[in-house]
Amino acid sequence: MTIKLLASNKVFGGVHQRYSHQSESTQCEMTFAVYMPPQAAEDTPVPLLYWLSGLTCSDENFMQKAGAFKVAAELGMAIVAPDTSPRGEGVADDPKGAYDLGLGAGFYVNASQAPWAKHYQMYSYICEELPALLEQHFPISQQRAIAGHSMGGHGALSIAFKNPQRYSSVSAFSPICQPTNCPWGQKAFAAYLGNDQLRWQEHDSSLLIKQLKPEQQLPLLIDQGSDDNFLAEQLKPETLVDAAKQLDYPINFRVQQGYDHSYFFIASFIEDHLRFHFKYF
Amino acid sequence: MTIKLLASNKVFGGVHQRYSHQSESTQCEMTFAVYMPPQAAEDTPVPLLYWLSGLTCSDENFMQKAGAFKVAAELGMAIVAPDTSPRGEGVADDPKGAYDLGLGAGFYVNASQAPWAKHYQMYSYICEELPALLEQHFPISQQRAIAGHSMGGHGALSIAFKNPQRYSSVSAFSPICQPTNCPWGQKAFAAYLGNDQLRWQEHDSSLLIKQLKPEQQLPLLIDQGSDDNFLAEQLKPETLVDAAKQLDYPINFRVQQGYDHSYFFIASFIEDHLRFHFKYF
């Protein structure tokens, strides 16, 4: 598997780079961005945080707006930000160009329905293909954590709950916690997975959390802004928090007063998330 | 003078806001962004850093990409990021839509030539109208510093050198140091100021610095990346550094190895600039 360097910028003594590669999972050219901390320059394997972005984002939003590099450089932690969907000629999109389906809205599932199934295989891409590719090309260790925002928070939680052996910890900002029961999730899951709601449940964190055995309960941190416009209708963290309580799963769910859904919120608390993940590597 | 709130986001305990207002200087609606640190919530006047952005930027680039808020919040420093040109219907632009003239490229001068003179009065806007507006609407003190990037570095240096009594310190990332002798500056100055090169010299920092009396020499910090694609042809910091040496003006000029012209570079060193300015408030 080869990768093509698109851009490279020194930042906080490390390097931010963008790459593209032909993906077997999504059958198109995929782009990702990676931050390698200064420690990686000595070919010492460094731990890696997967960051899954939200609706409309590409590999660029987190890298440009989250302000994560100072602490990542201090800790010696790499970060990868994949794209949020397949892209390019022939890749299906919402017929009306809606922001919440198709391009920029892969929802981290493997689609089974036409016209989506051919390229929208983001679950396999994130869980299997991308890790193998990164471990081939970069000095990273087997220590992995996963985090994300909004749709990417759903991605991080659901992928971690389905693969607890692969990650040492998981965190999210403003995650979609119950996609089977909110407009964004229902629209995407109906399109990508069809009408069988049993298939939807395989990607709903508020249900997946109940399948974890106590020894599979990863350390989990969630930050949610109290002034987030999407909180009540789309995000529904209370379902996940209630499920965790019933399971005695000690999640750290924090409501941050006055914060909204934007990267200004993420930037304000990303340091806590990096230090949280670093503790469990 | 009234201002209209466009957006508001809590960040690092303070607030980032975007406003628009009808400008007397530029005869159009101008947009600016401001960060007010938590300390301002108590109506304690806080010092203010003016940040002037580079070519193609709006009020948004610095606020989204520089990662300045954590330290600004710690220090209790407000930051304002004005737009880089007038905009809107009837505002002249480069006939070919070039990025280095017209919209997004006001060069912080008052244009005297048609078709630019009517709206391109960015010098007056930054030096006079905006400060008066901000001091009317926000709890800010009379303590002002000024900084900028590239074209905005030229703006910060030239404005500070022309008005040393107004600012307590000045800094720049990758500034255009000799606009009378580089393609960007020559193109813009010829269009905005006409062919009389004496008018150009009134905005050339490598010349303006020589007019300062010793007691007018503001504390000055410049960061320049060694891998900046624009360094040799457009930025020419050596002319400014040489002039400072001849004057025994103790400027702090730092070459940062391996860094480029991007906001990744700015983010890596903005903390130093904020602490530098804070020292002189």
TrEMBL record, chains A, B:
It catalyses: S-formylglutathione + H2O = formate + glutathione + H(+). One of its GO terms (cellular component) is cytosol. Its EC number is 3.1.2.12. The active site is at residues 150, 228, 261. GO terms for biological process: formaldehyde catabolic process. Keywords: Hydrolase, Serine esterase. The keyword GTP-binding does not apply. It comes from the Bacteria. GO terms for molecular function: carboxylic ester hydrolase activity; S-formylglutathione hydrolase activity. The keyword Cell membrane does not apply. Pfam families: Esterase (PF00756). Serine hydrolase involved in the detoxification of formaldehyde. Belongs to the esterase D family. This is S-formylglutathione hydrolase. It comes from Agarivorans albus MKT 106.
